[in-house]
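Q: Got a minute? One more chain.
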Amino acid sequence: MASLIGLAISFAVLFIYILPRLGAGQEPLRVILLGGALIVPPSFYLAHGFSLKTTIAVLGTALSLILTVLLALLLIRWIGLTGYASEEAAFLQVQSSGIFNIRDLLMAGIVVGALGILDADITGGPHASR
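A: Always. Here it is, folded:
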């Protein structure tokens, strides 16, 4: 039951904090990182209880996200990714009068994906090795 409350908190942060700010054109990386900071501790502690193992998982997730951000920033610039891999990105840019930085949205998507993987791997989710 506590895991469902953690999931509800995650959805609330996503729909009340993250999506409205991204829609308003705020800097995506900062919004996603703060959103992740609001999601990770409550969902980890509710799903796995208050223990040293969970605290280490929260800290490990934070450090892993920082490393993910640094590597993604480096590789996005080095490889020259723009985020314009499909028509939708160009359509979003035109429809929003250019308030979205597509490269920053790409970066935010990488961070959100990493956050989901880190939760499953670090805390013993379905893909974790035991």
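A: Residues 126-130 have pLDDT under 50 and may be disordered.
Q: Perfect, thanks.
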